[in-house]
Amino acid sequence: MTTDDFRRNSDNFCYRHPDRQSFVLCQRCLRTICPECQTPAAVGVICPECLRDQQKGQSPAQRKAERRWSRPRAASVSDGRPVVTYAIIAVTAFVYLLTLIPGFGDTVERALLYWPPTLYPGLTGVFEPWRLLTTALVHSSIWHIGLNMLALYMIGRTLEPLLGRWRFLTLYVLSALGGSVAVTLLAFTTSVVGASGAIFGLFGALLVIGRHLGANIASIVLVIGINLVIGFVPGMNVAWQAHVGGLVTGLVVAFIFTRTRAVRQRTLQISLLSAVGAVLVALLFVPVLFPALVLGS
Q1: Cα Rg for the chain, rounded, in angstroms?
Q2: How many angstroms separate the CA atoms of 53 and 101, rounded?
Q3: Cα separation, 87 vs 291, whole angstroms
Q4: Model confidence pLDDT, tens digit, residues 236-291
Q5: 27 contact partners, CB below 8 Å, separation of at least 6
Q6: Class of the 83-294 domain?
Q7: 224: closest CA among 192, 201, 257, 242?
Q8: Cβ atoms 194, 140 nearer than 8 A
């Protein structure tokens, strides 16, 4: 094609600015648009008219979510890789492999599992607070760790890039702590292992954030409901107390995240998260102050 033919072909110029040459097409209407008229889409770019049509088709909940989540975030992730998710899976898998070593595995499991009386020297003569969190690293079988880590992998790939690495880690740790606290209050003489409390915290966070974004959360509610019911089935040997504690903690932490997203609210967010941790620790004094309420559990 000659230069004159090229110039006479309107398809080689922006349809909104005929004097601007461009080779980029709108992904919806396939008309040529210049850089000023381009809006990034899920794939490629779209023109202003197609953008308006797309926005007209949004539901009120979608428009509300777009306004909220297009505001500046308190922190951003340098890339979309769920690094913390992968790290937690790796550490948990490593601990599980240690528990498989003959003559050594039992020692590792006994040192890391959670048994509430180990927090109260007056009852057992020992004080081992690390068990509140390390119990999330110990699992009873390949199926136990497999299902928990699969859930962590599936949820973490969505939540971690959305929240940021430190928020996601905070959510996981506080949810694990919440699960252990619930076991302390509701099943004081029971020893537990597994990351189920933390996983249910992620479920709870996904529920709150999904609702905040205007997404359809019916499937999330169904999954949470099924897993909670399983915990009450006789013979399943599942610590439903940890599930409930982790879920409630995850709901609270996610609610804080959705209400303190702006940069100027960072201090408030940290203060509220610290308050959640403080409340969970304070609840551990209930067996000391009101032993009759928990010792019979």
Answers
A1: 26
A2: 62
A3: 38
A4: 678 899 999 999 999 999 999 999 887 788 899 999 999 999 999 999 999 988 88
A5: 41, 43, 44, 45, 46
A6: mainly alpha
A7: 201
A8: yes
Q: What is the pLDDT of residue 146?
A: 95
pLDDT at 74: 42
Model pLDDT for residues 119-150, shown as the tens digit of each residue: 999 888 999 999 999 999 999 999 999 999 99
Domain boundaries, the chain: 14-46, 83-294
Residue 233 has which token pair? 């089935």
Please report the pLDDT score of residue 149 as a whole number: 96
Q: Which residues are CB-neighbours of 62 under 8 A, at least 6 positions away? A: 214
Query: Which one, of 254, 252, 224, 91, lies nearest residue 163 by Cα?
Result: 254
- Token pair recorded at residue 134: 């390390």
Count of CB atoms situated within 10 Å of the CB of 177 = 24
170: nearest Cα among 266, 79, 276, 283: 276
pTM for this one?
A: 0.73
| Residues listed for the chain | 297
